[in-house]
Design a protein that fits this description.
Layout lengths: L5 H9 L21 H7 L5 E4 L6 H14 L1 H4 L1 E7 L13 H22 L1 H5 L16 H10 L2 E3 L4 E3 L7 H5 L6 E4 L2 E4 L6 E4 L5 E4 H14 L4 E7 L9 H12 L4 E7 L7 E3 L4 E3 L7 E4 L10 H30 L7 H5 L2 H10 L4 H18 L9 H21 L2 H17 L4 E5 H4 L2 H8 L3 E9 L7 E7 L1 H6 L17 H4 L9 H10 L3 E3 L8 E3 L3 H6 L15
Parallel strand pairs: 1-10, 1-13, 2-9, 9-10
Antiparallel strand pairs: 3-4, 5-8, 6-7, 11-12, 14-16, 15-16, 17-18
Length: 567
Amino acid sequence: MKLKDQKMQDVIKSLANNIRAERIDHGSFLSIYSGYENISNIKNIMNSVIYGRRGSGKTHLLKALSEVVIDEFEQKRVFPIYLDLRRIIPLLSSDGLADVDAILIFKYIMGEISYSLYENLGFILGTNEFDDSGALVNDIHGKLVSDYFSKIYLEMDGRTLKKATDLKVSEEEVRSLNAEVDISKDPRVAFKKGNNQKKITETSHRSHISVLDITNAFENLLKELDLNGVMLLIDEWSELGSDIQPSLAEILKKTFSAINVYLKIAAIPNRTELGYKSEKKFIGLEDGGDIFGYHLDLRYVFEVNKSQTRDFFNDLLYRHLSSIDKDTIDSFISNERTTSANFINLLFANVALNEILVACAGIPRDFINLFLNSYDRFLLSSTASAKRINVKSVRAANSEWYEKDKKEQVDKNNTERVLLTEIVKEVVHKKKSMHFLIPEEYSNNKHIQNLIDFRVIHLRKNGYSHKDHAGVSYNVYSVDYGCYNSLNIAKSKLESLMDGDLNVKDLREIRRISLEKEFFDKFLINIGEAFFCPNPKCKQAFDVNHPVYIKQGICNNCWEKIALPEG
């Protein structure tokens, strides 16, 4: 069997259905997950936030982790619940008030948690809890369980419990957000023993349930269900507004910190605000204390670790394609007289493999897209005798992918477009390189972070020391491979470093390619986010977005009070 055979074409082209984890039509997310060490590293009782850019595999990781927890349920009695916050956000209607939105989202989260537990009572208790009509058959725990469910937002429709529809926020709730958050719930549910009869008791007034009451009800529910804990897998956290996130994180902390609920939150780094330090205390989930970060973006960087990155994407391709048609894939490997460990080498020529591993920047979704596009180019343009995808096909696919997917995002944001243009001018055109340094103090610039989010520049290594700038810490970045590839700059003219590991020895040549204060001053002045200090002893450019200027009107260079001219 050859790479161009129709069976192989059918299998590979079907891979397009597996690009996004939420759309994978497969019986098991775990069986097609690559990088099991990621699951092992977060499969614990610690609260974790999984950071990664779009396409880095956050959703797939959460769903694979959920399957592992289910597989271990009999021994550990921990039940996983997956929540996609995108399904909750459209339900909001608070006129833009962050505290109100946070409480509403919390209510829906509790409703989803209770509904998931209710729907899986049979599995959790190890019995068939329902007959065909949906009525409780085993009423040993019936009343207690139903009372607890009612307090965390399930209501009775006359026959069964269902998701609550009456979710409103009172003034008392908003006022008490940073103290004791009151949650309203109506109607109340009561179960009557005997013949499994049920009734609804309507109340004319709205009852208020405090966070403490919800915590107690949930803890008692866990005991009644003989659960040692719940693992709450929250996806798409960064879809929430940055003003809402700390408030919601604070409510989650107050509700779950004292009971066995383990948070696993998937988030985009520069779009995440889990908390902040107020004058009196920390509001939200504090990194390193309440929650611990786990980063995906730097795990599979070819320039940093060639073998680990190659093995990861080899496994990813084999698992995904085998899940579509294992017989065809195994037959293809067998005909080449090798093993699945060398599968990726049967698909790409050596140089082409190196280039796609650099080009994808460690992002699984980008890798799959580039592979599919490269394979399509291979089918159309290569000779009949060609056995593997060549570098020409990879470069053509890469340029097309950049123009179609990434460049359009940049072009919609003028400031980021200007910054990328200046970086390309300095790094690619002048220095003929793809790697460069930025001082850490500028790495958090929102426009740099946006370019990272757009996947047109990539963080490659943190905390690099520059011998010419003692005491200054730098981060290593690269211009997206498709960016300069689309500019038709020959690889031979670039000191790309793709042929070696990104270690200290290799970084010596990067020292001459650092974007320093002068670069950022010029850029910030150009876009109107920096001005020259009027203090005669200073006259340096100060950043209007710097906290000391925003809060106190102080220049971040001379630390003197300044005032911008009107108009």
